[in-house]
Amino acid sequence: MTLPTDTDLAxxxxxxxxxVLPAVTPLTAAGxxxxxxxxxxxxxxxxxxxxxTADGRTHRVAVLVGQDLVSALAESxxxxxxxxxxxxPAVDALAAVLGATARAGVVTEMSLxxxxxxxxxxxxxxxxxGIDAAVLFPDTILTxxxxxxxxxxxxxGARLAxxxxxxxxxxxxxxxxxxxxxxxxxxxxPAATATVPQQFGAATSQVFAxxxxxxxxxxxxxxxxxxxxxxxxxxxxxxxxxxxxALSPGTVLELDRAADGPADLLVNGRLIARGEVVVVDEDFGxxxxxxxxxxGA
Length: 297
Hints:
InterPro entries: FliN, FliN-like_C, FliN/MopA/SpaO, FliN_T3SS_HrcQb, SpoA-like_sf. Belongs to the FliN/MopA/SpaO family. 22% of the residues lie in helices and 24% in strands. The chain has 297 residues and is an alpha+beta fold. The chain folds into 2 domains: 7-223, Chemotaxis protein chec, CATH 3.40.1550; 230-296, Surface presentation of antigens (SPOA), CATH 2.30.330.10. The strands form 2 sheets. Strands 1, 2, 3, 4, 5, 6, 7 and 8 form an 8-stranded antiparallel beta sheet that branches. A 4-stranded antiparallel beta sheet has the order 9-10-11-12, with no helix packed on it.
């Protein structure tokens, strides 16, 4: 017997993800429905992550994004950025709503996303200018939660009475029918109202986050809240394997930089600035003395 899934929980988790997923226009969960193999065709990139629930079971979820975000990450002035890292805060947010812990996500080929989920799944589209993203939940993480008190939606979140407005003739929608029934079944969504932009009558390449790359200014705006790992490098050296194996406490390594030379500031492995190492409240810091011109090229 197939157990019902908790669509309220799926929407609440998706709303939490929507609040921290990079986007120019704030995203809103547009109802939950049963997923099909057609859902990935509407998006340009995907990251999947393993969640572990309180009962010790593991599940995989997927975050699908449109071409705008994929292009913005690839064309960042700081170098190509990782989609999995950009979507990790969204994964962590939805995991918290589900009462689960999340492992680091990985970029997944679109053709492998559905099989990675391991079975039937529920999809929650995230609507901004169009359907800009979607979250895919395996039904195993939602089954059994039905009938329990629904998790509270993220602050400011809205739910849609219907996933989207009625489809225009000849248009293509998420799951082959996000604007109405999916495979002949009525989409399930909680009560409330909202209006989805009338882009859903356009071609799929326009409906789902656009067919062209985001302009540079729009891309930067989209990435403004993405956390980046910053590294300060004092210097480098090269060593033979035998010397590495001979390392022991007390060994001193000579680096390729003078003691009074500047340290390098790297973002995503790319040099963007140099500076002077200082001490800030007993911790090391870096006072920027030079911005590398090529960093913004």
